[in-house]
From TrEMBL:
SUPFAM superfamilies: EF-hand (SSF47473). It comes from the Eukaryota. The lineage of its organism: Eukaryota, Metazoa, Chordata, Craniata, Vertebrata. InterPro entries: EF-hand-dom_pair, EF_hand_dom, S-100_dom, S100_Ca-bd_sub. The gene is Sntn. It comes from Alca torda (Razorbill). This is SNTAN protein.
Length: 111
């Protein structure tokens, strides 16, 4: 498989893209590289992708009620597949409740 950095470099529109644009493009590429030909992930693939690619944000959340609620909702997905839109909503939800986000908010940057 082609490394994500190389895939990003091949997208001409991102040549001078912002950090945020590149971050979202990376999320889309990671998702697409794991998705089936219909552009969807199974529940098991979604959980695996979260554990392998989003571990810093979900670490320490496993026993918290909100995390359990999100994972339970994932388990209740009727069609057993997650599309990109649902995946991004899931990422945002997990980010908002993460301990890592609080650490990021507390980070002081210097110019």
């Amino acid at each position: 498989s082609v490394p994500i950095a190389k895939q990003l470099a091949s997208i001409k529109a991102l040549g001078k893209g912002s950090d945020l644009e590149k971050a979202f493009a990376t999320a889309a590429l990671v998702y697409n590289n794991s998705a089936d030909p219909e552009g969807k992930l199974s529940k098991a693939e979604t959980k695996n992708l979260l554990q392998t690619q989003f571990g810093g944000f979900i670490r320490g959340q496993e026993n918290k009620p909100k995390y359990q609620e999100i994972i339970s909702a994932l388990d209740e997905e009727l069609e057993n597949k997650i599309d990109f839109e649902d995946f991004m909503i899931l990422l945002v939800s997990l980010t908002l409740m993460s301990d890592l986000l609080q650490e990021i908010k507390n980070m002081k940057t210097t110019k």
